[in-house]
Specification:
CATH architecture of chain A: Roll
Number of strands of chain A: 7
Radius of gyration of chain A: 14 Å
Strand order of the largest sheet of chain A: 2-1-6-5
Low-confidence stretches of chain A: none
Strand content of chain A: 25-35%
Distance between the termini of chain A: 36 Å
Structural class of chain A: mainly beta
Oligomer: homodimer
Helix content of chain A: 10-25%
Chain lengths: 122, 122
């Protein structure tokens, strides 16, 4: 395994749908999160706002089965290629990238966040 | 335009091939880099190591024509959807993500970096 370059203990992870190739989200992983992802086959990250390790889907049930992990030329960024249950975005869209910079909504809404999370918009 | 959240003046940018949907690279943009990208239609970034704004391709000729910019639900990460001239990676691969975390090379080599850059591996 390459010697990954963590910055302040974290490495950015791009999450891509293994089949559609849609980019679903971007998150950060600690060394432990990367290890747990490899060991369990399910995506783990580190939340900078909540300051804790998290398994994607632990609250929503929207897990990410990781089919492959790629590293970049500098070993300072990863891609998790995943099979997504439900949707990646806590706003209910398939991808977190559901808007253009001009403000147009171009993504697909998959679920109602109020029904999945205890409080809307988390 | 959404109120983008820059951290230490920068926002991470995922660069995706507009046609093949391959993720080509990840880089950071300053507010000025985002503005220049929108104004010129060509990808601009901010190099943290060189501490300067750069236009992708200014040295290699491998420019990125930006077809669309997406922002994520938190407005703290962007996707540039691009038409890539040549290849994105300075190592000569189409994508910077040309290896699995297990060390297998899975990407396609497009050019010889020694012939494109003054010094190999830059």
């Amino acid at each position: 395994m390459p010697d990954l370059k963590f910055q302040d203990g974290l490495i950015p992870v791009i999450v891509q749908d293994a089949k559609s190739r849609e980019v679903l989200m971007m998150a950060y992983a600690s060394e432990k999160a990367v290890r747990l992802t490899r060991e369990t086959g399910f995506a783990h990250y580190y939340s900078r706002s909540r300051k804790k390790l998290w398994k994607k889907g632990e609250e929503s049930g929207h897990f990410q089965k990781v089919e492959r992990i790629l590293t970049d030329c500098d070993d300072d960024c990863l891609i998790y290629e995943v099979v997504q249950t439900g949707a990646a975005c806590h706003m209910g869209y398939a991808s977190c990238f559901y808007r253009t910079l001009d403000g147009n909504v171009v993504g697909t809404k998959v679920f109602d966040p109020e029904k999945v999370y205890k409080k809307p918009g988390r």
